[in-house]
Every structure is written in C-alpha cells, then in structure tokens.
Amino acid sequence: MPLSNSLETLIERECAKAHTHGVILRVASRDGRVDFKGSAGAATPDTRFPIASITKMFTSALIMQLVDERRIDLDQTVETILPDVDLTGVHVVKGVDYGPGLTIRHLLHQTSGLADYYEGDLAKALKAGNDRRYDLNDVLQMTKALPPQAAPRSGKSYYSDTNYQMLGAVIEAATGQTYNQALQYRICDRLGLTQTEVLGGDELGLPVYHKDTQLNVAQTLASMGPDGGIISSMDELMIFLRAFSEGQLFDPKNITQMHQWNRLFFPIQYGYGLMRVKLPRWMTLFRATPELIGHSGSNGSFAFHAPEPDIYLLGTFNQTDAPRRPIGFMLRVLGLVAKHSEVR
After folding, report:
1. Which of 191, 221, 255 is the endpoint of a domain?
2. Which residues are CB-neighbours of 123 under 8 A, at least 6 positions away?
3. For a Cys-Cys bond, which of 65, 153, 196, 290 suits 306, CB 3.0-4.6 Å?
4. Which has the closest alpha carbon to 99: 64, 148, 156, 170?
5. How far apart are the C-alpha atoms of 185 and 204, rounded to whole Å?
6. Residue closest to 229 by CA, chosen among 151, 136, 340, 306
7. Between the CA of residue 150 and those of 109, 154, 245, 265, 344, what are the distances in Å?
8. Could you read off the pLDDT of 254-271 as tens digits, one per residue?
C-alpha cells in the first residue's frame, strides 16, 4: 500500500475516535521523498486553524532576531525594556520578590517560575462558554492571583503562558510595532506567508472543541497573541517549521543555546520556545524512538521536526480534551514512514 494511503487510513481512524471532529496532518521530508497532506472530518487541506502554543516558536524566532540585531540582550531584565510595566509583586516566592529581576532569558526558557495566568479562572471561564478580551495588565493581575511555580533559576522549566505574554511586550517595545506587525514584517513577508496572522476577529477557521462542546474562544485567542493567538494553514505552517529548523529566520549559531533542554513534564523537555520529546526505551520495549523537536498546543496542534529521519510533521486535532495526544500519533506516522522506506 502506498504511504499516502496508509496515512489517509490513519487519519480516518483518528477522526473516528471519541470527541474528534476534525484532523489535519502534513508530513514532509527535506529531500522530497515524503510529501503528504490530508484531513478528515470537518477539516480540509486548505482550512486555517488556530495553532495555539506553536505560536511560541514564532515568538522565540522574533526574540532571537532582535538578539542578532543587538536590540535586546537575553540577560537584561524585562523592566529595562518595559519601564512602564511594574512587575513588583507579580512573582513572590517565600517572601522574596523576583519580579524586578526577571530576565528575557527566564521568560524564553520558561525558567522564571511564574504562575501561568491561563490556568486560573480564565480556563474555567472558557469551558463555561465565557469568552473575553484581555491585555498584559490583565495578565499580570491574573498571575498575581495565582501561587508561583518556583523561584527563577531552579534548574527546571515551568510552563507559563505569562512568560510569552511578556515577551510579546518586549518585541513591541524593541520594534515599535504591534506583535502582529512584527510577525508580518519579520516572518510572514520574508517567507511569503499570506494566511498566517494573529487572530483579530471571530473567524477561527477550524472550530475548537472540548470533547463534544464547540468552544467560544475567538476573543481569548485574539488576546493570547504571542503565547497562542496565531492562526495559519498546514502549508504555511510547514514553510515556517522548515525555515525555523533550518536556521533561516535567525543566526543558526543560536540553535545550540535554544536546544538547552530542561525538564518540563514527562515526556517533554523545554528549550527556548521549543519542546523536545524523546521516549525512554523502557516505555517502548527497549526500541529506540525518534527525537521530536518543535511545539504542541493545548488544542491538540503540533509542529515538530524529527532530525533522524529528517521528517517534518504538523497538524491539529482541535480538541482540548487530550493535549498530549499528538505524541503517540506522530510516532505512529513516523512508524509508517519508516515501514514504507524499508519496503522501497
């Protein structure tokens, strides 16, 4: 059976599972031996979809561009570039206020230990159908109301959308543009992307679900901006993923430090706006599995590169019920690719 048929069968089976309303998959290799795109359910190959936290890869690319241009330094404090933003009391751990000392590197590497504003009342409100707009000041207030995860420099990354909201403000201060303007000028125009942008209205493309409930999230996604507010298409996201992985968007020398992996939550490690997935052999009957580098989103979106065998994978389930679902799915896709290569 041709690889494309096997992948189409896999997508259909995934879409037939409970609480699944649409699946998108795009797979490609750098040498062109693999090039597949498919969809099932409510999705079509041209459907735009919210990429959720894959947005953090775009934000990290913009930050590294500004570092290359020496407009910012990763070790400068956030307050030096955002003097009008008061971080006092935002991050207090055991009586010590770490807010004024937070650096851009802390935010980028998710080592600030800041609370994740999204995990407070906002997430509950969304599932209850209450969509709303908010800005950075609201984000900081929501963060203050939550317990911190850890003090900075704990040696571990703690996932927090607050970090990337603040990085968006850093980008705006350093460029004099809105986040979306910087995105268009520095990434989309460079790569010829016309369907990729921060969500601005009510058009989500592919609806987002929690189990079988369609969520009303347009205003929230528009507010997320730098931490999860981009909408794109499978073809344009593939162009970005390859450009990012191949060092076309910033000095390739940055990749080494961006791949400084910290523990996040099993089986994911975190770098600079990047996730790494590498399952231990004891989980796979002592068979080696490919390393995956990229990012996933809470709605089941995923965009990863498997350096060996040099395969790019992306897509979405648009389902918030099982955000880790893409990991097993991508490994099954890579298994089919490997099997097809052996047959050939």
Report:
1. 191
2. none
3. 290
4. 148
5. 22
6. 136
7. 14, 7, 30, 14, 51
8. 999 999 999 998 889 999
Maximal CA-CA distance, the chain: 63
The CA R_g of the chain, rounded to the nearest whole Å, is: 19
Task: Give, in order, the Cα–Cα distances in Å from 2 to each of 9, 36, 38, 147, 295.
Answer: 11, 11, 14, 52, 29
Q: Are residues 49 and 59 in the same domain?
A: no
Residue-level pLDDT at 196? 97
The total number of structural domains that make up the chain: 2
Query: Who has greater pLDDT, 190 or 321?
Result: 190
- Shared-domain flag, residues 140 and 215: no
Asked if pLDDT for residue 73 goes beyond 90, the answer is yes
d(CA 18, CA 283): 25
220-254 tens-digit pLDDT: 989 999 999 999 999 999 999 999 999 999 999 99
Same-domain pairing of 207 and 332 = yes
Domain coverage including residue 49: 3-53+196-343
In angstroms, the CA 270 to CA 149 distance is: 16
Q: What's the whole-model pTM score?
A: 0.95
Cα 320–chain centre separation: 14
Nearest to 119, CA basis, from 79, 158, 157: 158
Last residue of a domain, which of 191, 217, 232? 191
Stronger pLDDT, 98 or 200, i.e. the higher one: 98
Residues ≥6 apart with Cβ < 8 Å to 341: 33, 309
Residue type at 10? L
Instruction: Summarize pLDDT for 109-156 with one digit per residue, the tens.
Output: 999 999 999 988 787 777 667 888 999 999 999 999 999 999 997 889
The predicted pLDDT at position 342 comes to 58
CB 26 within 8 A of CB 235: yes
Check: CB of residue 165 under 8 Å from CB of residue 225.
Answer: yes
Report which residue type is found at 73: D
Upper half-sphere CA count for residue 277 (Cβ side, 13 Å): 20
Q: Of 45-49, 52-56, 313-317, where does mean pLDDT reach its minimum?
A: 45-49
